[in-house]
């Protein structure tokens, strides 16, 4: 018999999940829409097995690489967990508003997967954050205000140290430098075990757990 989960309070459910233990999960189904125009998709977790909406099964104990992203884009958030084995790859993804029900359901699924991984694959290292290429692309956006800043400052220097363009140029330079520093594409992505990542997500205010 399957347990179909559309949960109004994910935190209560996950507290119970911690209490009963991951090994007792039997055919648990979690449904949500991955995008605003998408139909409802149902995932199933049974112990160490993850079944996708297409009916494909992934052994969580065989996962060798994992990547998690929780990224704001304008007024919506992209949540994604990619799980890779030597033979296959599965991506759990949802594009919803910060407090959307589908995003909450997606996090219930991700948290359930993390709980299962704690048992069947506890030493797995999960990369948290953007990929290196994406980070460099985002950092390049900071070069735009840097370019404006240099242009203003050169104009100010060419006009007998005109104060206004010099101040504007400095402001743009600081803005661009701050953006690049926040992205820090030269830093290696943080790596977490399933237990560490779950504990980290629970503490974040933008995560509905």
Question: Could you describe the 3D structure shown?
Answer:
- Helices cover about 40% and strands about 25% of the residues.
- The chain has about 210 residues and is of the alpha+beta class.
- The strands form two sheets. Strands 1-2-3-4-5 form a five-stranded mixed beta sheet, covered by helices on one side.
- α2 packs antiparallel against α6 and α4 runs antiparallel to α5.
Short account of what is shown:
The chain has 209 residues and is an alpha+beta fold. The protein has helices spanning 10-20, 101-120, 132-141, 143-158, 163-183, 194-203, and strands spanning 3-5, 28-32, 41-46, 49-51, 57-59, 65-73, 76-84, 89-96, 126-128, 190-192.
The count of strands amounts to: 10
Strand order of the largest sheet: 1-2-3-4-5
Oligomer: single chain
The structure class reads alpha+beta
Largest sheet: number of strands, sense, barrel closure: 5 strands, mixed
The helix fraction, in percent, is: 40-55%
Q: Could you spell the SSE succession in H and E letters?
A: EHEEEEEEEHEHHHEH
List the total number of helices: 6
Distance between the terminal alpha carbons, to the nearest Å? 26 Å
Unreliable segments (pLDDT under 50, ≥5 consecutive)?
1-9, 18-23
Q: How large a portion of the residues is in β-strands, by DSSP E?
A: 15-25%
Gyration radius, to the nearest Å? 22 Å
Mean pLDDT: 84
Q: Could you say which overall geometry the principal axes of the C-alpha atoms support?
A: elongated
């Amino acid at each position: 018999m399957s347990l179909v989960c559309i949960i109004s309070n994910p935190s209560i459910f996950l507290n119970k999940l911690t209490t009963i233990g991951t090994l007792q999960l039997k055919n648990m189904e979690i449904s949500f829409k991955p995008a605003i125009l998408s139909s409802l998709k149902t995932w199933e977790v049974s112990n160490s097995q993850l079944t996708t909406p297409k009916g494909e099964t992934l052994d969580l104990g065989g996962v060798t690489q994992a990547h998690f992203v929780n990224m704001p884009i304008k007024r919506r958030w992209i949540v994604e967990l990619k799980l890779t084995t030597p033979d296959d790859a599965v991506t759990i993804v949802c594009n919803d508003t910060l407090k959307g029900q589908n995003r909450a359901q997606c996090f219930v699924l991700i948290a359930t997967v993390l709980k299962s991984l704690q048992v069947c694959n506890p030493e797995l290292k999960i990369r948290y954050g953007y990929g290196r290429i994406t980070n460099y692309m985002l950092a390049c956006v900071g070069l735009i205000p840097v370019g404006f800043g240099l242009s203003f400052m050169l104009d100010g220097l060419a006009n007998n140290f005109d104060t206004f363009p010099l101040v504007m140029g400095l402001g743009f330079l600081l803005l661009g430098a701050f953006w690049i520093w926040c992205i820090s594409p030269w830093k290696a992505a943080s790596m977490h075990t399933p237990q560490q990542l779950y504990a980290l997500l629970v503490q974040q205010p933008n995560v509905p757990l």
